[in-house]
Each structure stands twice: as C-alpha cells, then as structure tokens.
Amino acid sequence: MKRKILSFMLFACMATGAFAARLDTVMTYSKAMNKEIPAIVITPDSYTSKKDYSVVYMLHGFGGSYKNDWASPKWDVVKYADVYDIIIVTPDGSDSWYLDSPIDPSYRYETYISQELVAFVDTHYSTRATREGRAITGLSMGGHGALHTAFLHQDVFGACGSMSGGVDIRPFPNNWHMSKTLGTYAEHPENWERHTVINLTHLLTPGSLAIIFDCGTDDFFYEVNCRLHEKLEYMNIPHDFTSRPGAHTAEYWRNSIKYHLVFFDNYFNSKKEEGK
Question: Which of 19, 96, 142, 219 could make an SS bond with 59 (beta carbons 3.0 to 4.6 A apart)?
Fold first, then answer.
C-alpha cells in the first residue's frame, strides 16, 4: 500500500499529569475506489512494537473531515489514547455516509473502512488484529456509518457506537447529499431501505456486538435513535442507550465521546480477561 506519514507531537494536560500522544497523518490507498484517502492515526505515548494495542476507529460527520471532527485539539480526543492506552484512527469519509453506493462505483467507503483501512492499520502498527481488539464509533453521519459498518462486518469489529447518529435515514430524503450516494428516495426506495441502520438489526444476535449509542433530546435525530433503542429492546439485543439534554453540537459530542471510550475500554479489558 502507498504510505506517506507526517508526524508531530501533541501534548495534552489533565489534572493528573501530562500526556503526549503521537499523531501520524497517513495516506492510505483504496483499491476499491482507486484513490488515496487521508487518515490520522493517534498512538499513545507508551506505544511500542513489542505490545499489541486495541484500536478505536472514529468517523466524522457530514461536512466534517478526518482532521476537524476528532483530531483537532478542540475535541480533547488525543489525550484518550494515553488514558486508555489505545490507538485511535480518524479516516476521511467525504460526504459518503460510509456506504458502498449502489449507483456510483466511486463511493466504496464501507469496503474502505471495513477492509482496506483496517488492513493498513494492522500492517503498519502494532495492533490486536482481531474483532476483540477493534471498536468503531462516530458522530451524526459517522454514527450511522459506524453502526452500519459494524452490523455488516461483525467479523471485523467487536464493539460499536453512535453519537447523535442518523440511524434511520428514510425520514430525511432531501438532506445531506444522500441521494448522490443512494439515488432519490422516490426513484430508488429499495436502496434507502437496504442501507439504513434500523433495518439491519436482523443481523444481530444477543451478545454478537457490544453496542453503545446516545442522542440529545433537542437533536433532530433524537426520535430515530429512540426507535432504534426500542427495536433493540424488543429483539432482546443488549446495548447501552443514553438520552440526555443536548442538541446536534460539538459541545454534546465532546461530552459523549468520554462515555463511548469508557464503554470500549471495558469491552477490550473483558475480552483480554476471557483470553487468559
């Protein structure tokens, strides 16, 4: 694979002390889309090739980017690589909704995230290269992408999450360029039905994935998140769902990611204990 890395050190301070994590800006090659796609790989200060690290993939929202939604200092995400001794990967997803488009072969982001990016990270970094060592989450468009990818690729990811995710895209047929990926809802309703998260729950069995998702009560995606929660409850699929005050804002997501990383840390540790 083609690789180009620009590295720098970013220091984050907490009340308990100082942390230093390394950020690599990498160019990954997607054979499925015949192009290079940038991503940031955050490794903890403790990183060494003598140890295998769990990996959390974080997907940005519509209108965001691999730089601005997670790796920017304003998000405070970098310090969590040190706090939980994990690798964090923030890929660029354009405005793709992280789907393999049924109408445009240049959009193959489900394949890119689940196969090509994971393979790149496992090849170039010291990872726990099993589903038990991988989690994926995201905000808004990225929340939909994280659950969609994990539900379809349970052999790749063991845990998944969504923050304010568009977990049912059907009520929003004219928004966020989704018709560019799926065609219009009026002309291609089958594409929308097949590619919305809430219609993929039949792929789950109790315990097949560790699932966490949340949404603010003032968010335009709040109702569809509640519906997903109710459907999973009806199907007896264990999951963590949190509803709390908040809107579709950076302030909400800065708070939300803390809970996701605690959840993933518990998952990774539990799987390590099972493996002993």
Answer: 142
**Of 231, 236, 239, 233, nearest in space to 213 by CA:** 239
CA distance 97 to 135: 18
Assigned token pair, 215: 């949404």
Classify burial at 80, counting beta carbons within 10 Å of its beta carbon; exposed 0-12, middle 13-18, buried 19 or more.
buried
Q: How many CB atoms lie within 10 A of CB 270?
A: 12
**Percent of the chain beyond pLDDT 90?**
81
Instruction: Please answer whether residues 52 and 77 qualify as being in contact, where contact means their C-beta atoms are separated by less than 8 angstroms.
Output: no
- Strand runs labelled E in 175-263: 210-216, 240-244
Whole-angstrom distance, CA of residue 222 vs CA of residue 227: 9
What residues have CB less than 8 Å from 154, skipping those under 6 apart? 131, 203, 208, 209
